[in-house]
Design goal:
CATH architecture of one domain: 3-Layer(aba) Sandwich
Order of helices and strands: HHEHEHEEHEHHEHHEHHEE
CATH topology of one domain: Rossmann fold
Radius of gyration: 23 Å
Bound molecules: S-adenosylmethionine
Strand content: 15-25%
CATH class of one domain: Alpha Beta
Mean pLDDT: 85
Helix content: 40-55%
Distance between the termini: 15 Å
Low-confidence stretches: 7-12, 292-307
Number of helices: 11
């Protein structure tokens, strides 16, 4: 696969905290909801041997590895050198390169499959990423874009209003905490056809929380004056009682959007297969393309290549 060399290399903010990030990504990968949603998206993508697949913001490369197993060739784009090195150690079948999703190092229409998971949440304007995904996909190429939406966080039991104020603290953790709900719109605006949208609630075990995380969220809500210290303490007490009764619920919803690049050229191609080709038609419909097998004007052409 042709890969453009990179001129600017913005570093991930997570550099330097690699072990923590790897632990977080591993925890995430083990979550049942994540596993179900990934499984669903991979099955829908139905990657075939020989296809060119990329994983944008590959992290530890778990999904790049999976794509590589299906295609034989998959590239993970990961700007964080620490994560990239973990990904390289963990996967022998995939390749990993430095790169920025806002300027992907791939030519137009050169990729069959794009996987992009939990990257939109790191960017203030994901519409640019969506445009990059659309740019690198071949006509008919497929994309799976997955992200959580922190606005869907539920904490239960306890006072509902206090619970919502505490859940609000999760909104501070991402550049775009509402990334999940925006995926379809961004991809559609970039010219991709939305094929399906799936979702899973990622929830923690009913009897135990990551208590230090929940306390941190509650403390943040107090500092932001959304709740008082007394409300925080009462809420945390209610959660502990809930834990004893297997009634704890902490969840956030993750969305997966499956999209395909426009088929316009493919439809015209199918028409050309049925009818006689003409150089004029090619110039008008496929500017910059050439007919590989019959060089136009002979019989119906079936193969075209970008030039
Ligand atoms: C939450 S992690 C997700 C990793 C992996 N996709 C997964 O789901 O396990 C977000 C990833 O996006 C990467 N990332 C952040 N900004 C990026 C950018 N501008 N271009 C490419 N990747 C980026 C981070 O380095 C990190 O690996």
């Amino acid at each position: 696969m042709a890969i453009r060399s990179r001129t600017s290399a913005p570093r991930s903010r997570e550099a330097g905290k690699v072990d923590d990030v790897v632990a977080m990504l591993d925890w995430h990968a083990g979550n049942h909801g994540v596993r179900r949603l990934r499984e669903w998206a991979h099955r829908a993508l139905a990657v075939r041997p020989g296809e060119r697949a990329i994983d944008i913001g590959a992290g530890t490369g778990s999904e790049t590895h999976r794509l590589a197993e299906a295609t034989g060739e998959a590239i993970g784009v990961e700007p964080n050198p620490g994560l990239r090195s973990v990904a390289v150690q963990r996967s022998r079948s995939a390749r990993f390169i430095d790169g920025d999703t806002l300027s992907l190092p791939f030519d137009d229409g050169s990729v069959d499959v794009v996987w992009c998971e939990r990257v939109f949440q790191h960017l203030a304007d994901s519409s640019k990423v969506a445009r990059e995904v659309a740019r690198v996909l071949r006509p008919g190429g497929r994309a799976a874009v997955l992200d959580t939406d922190s606005g869907t966080t539920i904490l239960y039991p306890g006072d509902r209003v206090v619970g919502e104020a505490v859940a609000c603290s999760t909104l501070d953790a991402a550049v775009d905490p509402y990334a999940g709900r925006k995926i379809s719109g961004h991809l559609a605006q970039a010219g991709l056809e939305i094929e399906d949208v799936g979702s899973q609630a990622l929830h923690q075990d009913g009897t135990s929380f990551n208590w230090s995380f929940v306390r941190m969220l509650a403390d943040t809500a107090v500092r932001a004056e959304r709740i008082t210290a007394e409300q925080r303490d009462a809420f945390l007490d209610d959660l502990h009682v809930g834990a004893e009764q297997y009634a704890l619920h902490m969840s956030v919803t993750m969305f997966a959007v499956l999209a395909r690049s426009a088929h316009r050229r493919q439809l015209v191609l199918a028409q050309l297969r049925r009818e006689r080709c003409s150089p004029l038609l090619h110039r008008v419909v496929f500017p910059g393309w050439h007919c590989v097998d019959h060089r136009c004007g002979t019989i119906g052409c079936g193969l075209f290549e970008g030039v």
